[in-house]
Amino acid sequence: MPRLRVGVVGLGHMGKEHARILATLPEAELVAVADIDANTRDTIARKYQTRAFADHRQLIGLVDAVIIAVPTFAHHEVACDFLCHGVPCLVEKPLASNLAQAEHLVQLSRQYSTLLQVGHIERFNPAMLDLEKRSLRPRFIQGQRLSMYSGRCLDVGVVLDLMIHDLDVLLALVRSPVVQVEAVGVSLFGGHEDIAEARLTFANGCVATLTASRISVRPCRRMIVYSPEGYVELDFFKKHTLIVQPSQKARRLGWRPEQLDISLVGLLREKLFGQWLEVQEFDHNEGDQLTEEIRHFLHCVRTGNRPRVSGEDGRDAIALAERILHKIRFAPGHYQSCAA
């Protein structure tokens, strides 16, 4: 089977990673890269023995698919050019700068029957894949996504830069409309928010609280999902899962701790974990989620399958992000700037 001809547009941090991985995949041929910086594009082209272009439109006709990793403000313009020519696109997250642009890209994807996938990489994290296999009915979710200052993605705030990952994960897990949004944010340097917290209430009763920061002292990417079936702690960074759920004995016999004789409460405390609650831990160190995301994209290009993270998914995450940003920026008393 002939290899798919793939190009990468935008050679910043993520674009370089996409190019590196594509150059190693047997099912793909990295035929071209594009970037406005001559030194960057020529360096990458020499490294991977491919062609370099200043204008992304020069890739049209040369590639079977394209990965778009330009700054967020340019996602819409670049993706439009490829979608209108029927070139399947993997667009880094967020799909676009705003909901109107995201909706337009989805419409173009439908109009030209062209694949549109969004780079919400946590959907390919082994810990997330393991969670989705479990029959949980989330009732309360806590998420923390804290990052050290990187100097990247400064054209957007922390909601569209980092929290957008967890918004996409939430929508995939809960699968219910969000009926209420509360949020607060802080800009440490002025301009876009650098720290944000949101509380989301879903139509099915689930409640989620998310915290995101891009000026943290140490990184943290964790989520805890509570449900009647037990609770799961996910460490996206370490790809680790901790699961606590009622034991088979508890499920078979049923138990009501509040009805126990006071003399048995101490015994219950000693035997709670093990006899009544099972604790399991899993390390998911196999694979690399960016490689899996790219290979999934290539598979969908070949087969025509719907991608795991579709354009519609990316649009929905942006729609929710805009509701959060509205609360942060415009609700009285919510938005504060330390630099003011």
Question: In words, what does this structure look like?
Answer:
Helices cover 36% and strands 27% of the residues. The chain is α/β, with parallel strands linked by helices and 340 residues long. It has two domains: 4-122 and 289-307, 3-Layer(aba) Sandwich (Rossmann fold); 123-287 and 321-330, Dihydrodipicolinate Reductase, domain 2 (2-Layer Sandwich), CATH 3.30.360.10. Strands 14-13-12-11-7-10-9-8-15 form a nine-stranded mixed beta sheet. A six-stranded parallel beta sheet has the order 3-2-1-4-5-6, with helices on both faces. Strand 5 (89-92), helix 4 (99-111) and strand 6 (116-119) form a beta-alpha-beta unit. Helix 4 packs antiparallel against helix 10 (311-330) and helix 6 (158-174) crosses helix 10 (311-330). The radius of gyration is 22 Å and the shape is globular. The model has no long low-confidence stretch (mean pLDDT 90).
Would you identify the CATH H-level superfamily of the largest domain?
Dihydrodipicolinate Reductase, domain 2
Please tell me the total number of domains: 2
Strand order of the largest sheet: 14-13-12-11-7-10-9-8-15
At the first level of CATH, the class of the largest domain is Alpha Beta
Give the overall shape, derived from the CA principal axes: globular
Determine the strand fraction and express it as a percent band. Answer: 25-35%
Give me the number of helical elements: 10
Report the average pLDDT across residues.
90
**Global structural class:** alpha/beta
Low-confidence stretches: none
Task: Predict the CATH topology of the largest domain.
Answer: Dihydrodipicolinate Reductase, domain 2
Into which percent range does the helicity of residues fall?
25-40%
Number of separate strands: 15
Q: Terminal Cα separation, in Å? A: 59 Å
Largest pleated sheet = 9 strands, mixed
Rg, nearest Å: 22 Å
Give the helices and strands as they follow along the chain: EHEHEEHEHEHEHEEEEEEHHEHHE
If classified by CATH, what would the architecture of the largest domain be?
2-Layer Sandwich
